[in-house]
Amino acid sequence: xxxxxxxxxxLVECGDLTVRGGVLHLKTLQGLEPVHVGALPPQCAMxxxxxxxxEEMAVEAALTGNPRLVYQAIAYDPLTAAVLSLDxxxxxxxxxxxxxxxxxxxxxxxxxxxxGLNPNTLRSRMNKLGIPYGRKYHK
Length: 139
Hints:
The chain is mainly alpha-helical. Among the domains are: 1-40, no CATH class; 84-136, Arc Repressor Mutant, subunit A, CATH 1.10.10. The protein has 7 helices and 3 strands. The N and C termini lie far apart (51 Å).
């Protein structure tokens, strides 16, 4: 409530704030606006910076279509990590690539190419994660 009054906003949620270069910013329709509310305790600044870096990684992944960045952004997201194991994240990432590739692993447009992996490496990961492929694969 005090922060809302300080910022002259009706309501400020945690997601409306971010730290860039050690400075607190409010996300507005006009962009990021620096806000002075005093020094953040180091433990708060660290957590906020981590969140901002993960968000930036996700945006870059979306803009570039880089599958490794997508995976890394998902794997480092604290909420995702609280809900899914790393193996479950890997399996979902691979299944999405397989769906995009129509079940194809090798060659142009195959899941291995989409993920930037060698097809044999992808098959090995699929075996480890229990993901069917080839004749066992059914949509």
